[in-house]
Task: inverse folding
């Protein structure tokens, strides 16, 4: 189908100066939309260098949010920056945006400021799925009138959708996070020895469940001399080694890697383990692993279930014994691993960015068709 | 003593009137915005339905073309329209798509997706409007003016969901 290219304005709430899931999502989505032939402008807090489709909105301040630290931009100066960006319109033509796409619209950030002053069709995406989101509940009285300006809502997972329905009312279209399948599927394999089991993520965040995995490795280590734990991600390495105790020698700490390095490491893993304890809304690491062909063993969390489907194995979250048994069974069964790898590669095609961005464009078109600026009532 | 009491009562009344006034102005503004949004969403949904029916009218199967013509002939989002669009949707879902040429098939899938999304956008707007209009202050003071009460548009989404949704 060929349609008129859309002029799309995307607002990212978190600073591009630090890595993060939402930031990566926004930039990847913008690139995928540009590839599809649309005009895309991104407004985001940033102090450093940014891609040319980004308008930096200044440096961000750090606030604790959802168990992490979010870097956001707020206040009257930020508000006037938003106004200017909207007035400037779509580059290079300067026409007004056909549609605005705000991410995490309920966080105190550029997104909510844009919601405050914007007119026209607005699409929002909810990323977070904190079940115990008291902040969101407390804010709903303030945010609800603003949310009435939203034309269409997207949630990245059934969990994110449920949370937003419960706290803000209204419904949301489920469109998953995208992944660059090609980048993860093809390329060099990091040389490894023995039985490499992988972990990818910030390992010193408790909700990522590294301690569960370490306990499982400790259970398996005596009878599996070749077992290695390959860790990709940032965190305090010394503290991790201390926590690992006797199995510290089994750790291969690769630190934070770029996507290509991460992909090469994932392609080398016999099993990718996602031992999270909760607080996840999607599970990018799972789609990346599927794209890289790594068999996945994940905690049985609702968002992980819906991403993996039949293409991965699950264990009860937090249960180191069950994780150890699941790992041992997979490591002893190369046929099962090959089957999981193949199933993952098939399943991940639905999460490839061109597919996901195409689905997002459909929501944009539905929103543009309901443009309140052309409404008949006023 | 009494003078102080009278002054206090007047001040309290003034504060109350001010507070209610602010609330009323806020509510009216929100209602106005919601009515505009709902109207726009309705016209968006109507054009999505019209487009789906137009694609249906180009198909070879006689029953589909008849259902498409019937849907196109109905104006507005009435209960009758729901019945006719449901009939069309069911016939389209039961269609043997392998017989369609690629271009027509792509157009049909696209039109169907936009109906699913258009209905979602419309019903979201209706829900928000009904929610605010059910508030006591709004009903009591009839802040909605002469705007008619919007209604949901209920038709079955194609199964399995052919919208741009997640794999399940």
Result:
């Amino acid at each position: 189908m060929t349609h008129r290219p859309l002029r799309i304005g995307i607002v990212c709430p978190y600073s591009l100066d630090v890595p993060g899931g939402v930031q990566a999502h926004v930039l990847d989505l913008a690139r995928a939309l540009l590839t599809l032939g649309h005009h895309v402008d991104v407004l985001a807090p940033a102090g450093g260098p940014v891609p040319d489709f980004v308008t930096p909105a200044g440096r961000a301040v750090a606030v604790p949010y959802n168990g992490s630290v979010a870097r956001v931009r707020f206040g009257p100066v930020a508000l006037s920056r938003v106004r200017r960006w909207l007035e400037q319109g779509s580059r290079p033509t300067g026409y007004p945006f056909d549609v605005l796409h705000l991410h995490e619209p309920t966080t105190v950030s550029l997104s909510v400021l844009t919601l405050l002053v914007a007119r026209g069709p607005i699409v929002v995406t909810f990323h977070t799925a904190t079940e115990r989101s008291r902040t969101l509940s407390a804010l709903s009285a303030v945010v609800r009138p603003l949310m009435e300006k939203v034309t269409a809502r997207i949630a990245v997972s059934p969990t994110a959708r449920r949370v937003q329905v419960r706290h803000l009312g209204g419904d949301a279209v489920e469109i998953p996070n995208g992944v660059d399948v090609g980048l993860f599927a093809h390329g060099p394999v990091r040389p490894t020895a023995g039985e490499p089991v992988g972990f990818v993520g910030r390992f010193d965040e408790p909700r990522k469940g590294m301690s569960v995995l370490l306990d499982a490795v400790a259970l398996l280590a005596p009878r599996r001399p070749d077992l290695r734990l390959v860790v990709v991600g940032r965190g305090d390495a010394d503290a991790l080694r201390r926590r690992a105790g006797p199995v510290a020698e089994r750790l291969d700490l690769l630190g934070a890697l770029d996507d290509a390095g991460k992909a090469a490491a994932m392609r080398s893993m016999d099993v990718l383990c996602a031992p999270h304890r909760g607080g996840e809304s999607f599970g990018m690491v799972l789609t990346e692993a599927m794209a890289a062909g790594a068999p996945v063993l994940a905690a049985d969390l609702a968002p992980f279930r819906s991403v993996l489907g039949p293409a991965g194995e699950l264990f009860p979250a937090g249960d180191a014994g069950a994780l150890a048994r699941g790992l041992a069974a997979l490591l002893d069964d190369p046929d099962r691993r090959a089957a999981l790898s193949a199933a993952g590669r098939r399943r991940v095609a639905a999460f490839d960015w061109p597919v996901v961005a195409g689905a997002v464009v459909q929501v944009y078109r539905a929103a543009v068709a309901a443009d309140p600026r052309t409404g008949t009532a006023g | 003593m009494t003078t102080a009491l009278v002054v206090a009562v007047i001040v309290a009344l003034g504060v109350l009137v001010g507070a209610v006034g602010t609330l009323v102005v806020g509510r009216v503004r929100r209602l106005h915005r919601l009515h505009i949004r709902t109207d726009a969403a309705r016209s968006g949904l109507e054009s999505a339905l019209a487009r789906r029916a137009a694609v249906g009218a180009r198909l070879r199967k006689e029953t589909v073309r008849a259902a498409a013509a019937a849907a196109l002939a109905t104006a507005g989002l009435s209960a009758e329209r729901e019945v006719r669009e449901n009939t069309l949707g069911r016939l389209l879902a039961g269609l043997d798509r392998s017989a369609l040429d690629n271009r027509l098939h792509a157009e049909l899938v696209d039109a169907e997706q936009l109906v699913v999304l258009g209905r979602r956008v419309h019903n979201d707007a209706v829900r928000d409007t009904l929610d605010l209009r059910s508030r006591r202050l709004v009903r009591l003071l009839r802040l909605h003016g002469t705007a008619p009460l919007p209604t949901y548009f209920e038709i079955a989404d194609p199964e399995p969901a052919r919208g741009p949704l997640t794999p399940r």
About this structure: The radius of gyration of chain B is 24 Å. Confidence is low (pLDDT under 50) at residues 161-168 of chain B.
